[in-house]
Amino acid sequence: MSHLPPPPDPNRPATSNVAVASFAQLIEQVRYLSEHDLEQVRQAYRFADESHLGQMRKNGDPYITHPIAVALQCAEWQLDAHALMAALMHDAMEDCGVTKQDLIQRFGAPVAELVDGLTKLDKLEFDTREQNQAESFRKMLLAMSRDVRVILIKLADRTHNMRTMGDMPRSKWGRISRETLEIYAPIAHRLGLNVTFRELQDLCFKHMHPWRYTVLSKATNKARARRKDLIKKVQEEVKHALKDQGLQATVFGREKTLFSIYSKMVEKHLTFAQVTDMYGFRLIFNTLMECYSALGVLHQLYKPLPGKFKDYIAIPKVNGYQSLHTTLVGPGGTNVEFQLRTTAMDVVAESGVAAHWLYKVNAPESEAATRLGTQWLQSLLDIQHETKDATEFWDHVKIDLFPDAVYVFTPKSKIMSMPRGATVIDFAYAIHSDIGHRTVSANINGERVPLRTELKNGDVIEIITANIQKPNPAWLSFVRTGRARSKIRHFLKTMALDESLALGEKMLLQALRVEGIANLPEYDGPYQQVWDKLLRSTSNRTKEELLADIGMGQRIASMVSKKLATLLAEVGIKPDVVLISQERYSPQHETISQGVLALDGSEGGSIQFASCCHPIPGDPIIGYLGRGEGLVIHTEDCHVGKKLLTRDRERFLEVEWSDEPTRSFEVGLLVTVENGKGVLARVASTLTAAEADITHVDMRDERAEQATDLKFTVAVRDREHLTNIMKALKRTSSVLKAQRTGNGVKTKPQT
């Protein structure tokens, strides 16, 4: 059977010959396929060519040249026939009216699934471009988590679009380039497609800043010409030194991309002349031991720069990349980076997950297949399960796109990679969702640390759990990974619904008592009609939904209770005048008239204690029904609470502390101390001795000659406990003053 495409049709436009020539090049590139697979690819080409008949690109070429170019890029990664077929037909569903069923009947379900995963959701209507984009990426990424070929084809598609961006209207350059730089380039990096990653970055730079790109390109060419002799000298010296030690290496020269040079100039405020590490070499060896032996040879030949050695062989990057990196001071004081790796590592380094995927196909049970860096792909399914909102899903995924990782250890010495900036909570959720949910504290390298502590390379982390612990909404302010964030939000949403329902029922009952009705009627028998009328008036579908809305502050309990009392009166339930006088005409009736809600700290996420004033048991308090936030508790003296009371009086509910709170509450302390050795340790020791749990410490940046302020957030039982803590601080040496912080909270300083 012939490998050549069908001959040009004389009845077709002459420009079609461009497509035929391109397809001939593709066929030459995919000689690694079997005869049967080649025929399948040719059939897909004919189908795509017919589908796109009459469609042209901006430069006048037939549209089919674009799918062929995408397939060519996939062929460079040696993807299989199904992937190449999907690449050729990737726009058929979107632009040509071809259905998924058509593709299933013609080419089978696997190819149809690949094409469907690549198809945007332009046919659906969304409120905003951002929502449309987020929903499209969600579909693409989920398809990718099931089959990595989806994103490989998508990256090939975007790469060709960026290469031909010059044919697009200039008004689109900025938006498309920013999207590529923020989304597709990081995905390529995450998947280890370093060649594609670097090319996309440079193409984005070229179209976002054309003038800067041109200037920097000219400067780089001049510098390359000036340093040509120096680079040649380094290359010869390295080859000679390796040969003397019996080491054979393939040596490639490497130059920083224009984008990386530009980024370094911007980030470190350098001129072009100050960028000294523009050049480097990649050394490819046959065995692992040769890499380490050659490293010793290089360090003897040139002086290494301190802190510029990285062993990514012993601890690979998140995307599977392995190599030894070292930066040496070459002739003339020029910094030169060397990358040392084996041939197998080089394939993975340049092709990333594409190489991994091929290994997996050829040897599904091999160690290489299980060590693929596919954890991130699989975690997409976990995040999707917890997150139904497309924009929120995409926010979670973007967090994990930049694999600047730290490497930490479990107590059993298992290595785990985490994004830079990840905290103890991120680590706990990376182990297992249940571990994350029940985390109460942690030890790093044997020392107890706060949950917000950021992880560092080499940390040994032990997570301590308790069955009664639940995720804290405050964790969302410092977690780094999308997995942890989505798990916490899902748990809080599920728990908040139950808690809001219970709070709403309690609030409606109290408001109903003000109207003279002692009990909330059941949703059955003679009262079902009453509830149905009430739900129609509030536009709620169920009684539970209405109560949850009240608990979340979406509806005012007093207004619902008035309507309910009116409906009950229609069926003969009259208000109790004595109960009205007891509930409505209390000493506080001029301010709030929904009854009193007692708080003991066990209410959960439906009740929040305001961070502006940190109310604690013993403080006079008021409750504000924030819209969608549930009940927010402020101190009576809080400036924020006072403003809300003036503006939104009907949303306030009278609250009081229970006689026996079930937990401790956070409060802010400002401790002014004399500067001196060990003063922070003494203050912390005093707080610990006073049974105050320190949750956060902050020191002012500015230097003081005699005194400085220490800001603590501590957990206390009540106001009396806080007073005892402040008295203990007063007796501590070097402490000049201690006072409670908070908006409007008036507490006498202890001096």
Structural notes for this entry:
By secondary structure, the chain is of the alpha+beta class. It has 30 helices and 19 strands. The strands form five sheets. Strands 1-2-5-4-3 form a five-stranded mixed β-sheet. A five-stranded mixed β-sheet has the order 11-15-13-14-12, sandwiched between helices. The N and C termini lie far apart (96 Å). Mean pLDDT is 77; it is low at 1-15, 121-128, 357-374 and 587-594.
Q: How would a crystallographer describe the biggest sheet?
A: 5 strands, mixed
Low-confidence stretches: 1-15, 121-128, 357-374, 587-594
Indicate the proportion of strand residues: 15-25%
Supply the helix-strand structural class: alpha+beta
Envelope shape: globular
Instruction: Tell me the number of helical segments per DSSP (H or I, 4 or more residues long).
Output: 30
Overall mean confidence score, pLDDT: 77
The helical percent reads 40-55%
Q: What Rg, in angstroms, do the CA atoms define? A: 33 Å
**Terminal CA distance:** 96 Å
Strand order of the largest sheet: 1-2-5-4-3
DSSP strand count: 19
Record the SSE blueprint:
Layout: H1 16-29, H2 35-51, H3 65-76, H4 81-88, H5 92-95, H6 100-107, H7 109-118, H8 129-146, H9 149-163, H10 173-190, H11 194-208, H12 210-226, H13 228-244, E1 250-255, H14 258-268, E2 279-285, H15 288-301, E3 303-311, E4 324-329, E5 335-342, H16 343-351, H17 353-362, H18 367-370, H19 375-386, H20 390-399, E6 405-409, E7 415-419, H21 424-431, H22 433-437, E8 439-444, E9 447-449, E10 461-465, H23 482-514, H24 528-538, H25 543-551, H26 557-570, H27 577-584, E11 596-599, E12 607-609, E13 621-626, E14 630-635, H28 639-647, E15 652-657, E16 665-674, H29 679-689, E17 693-699, E18 707-716, H30 719-730, E19 735-741
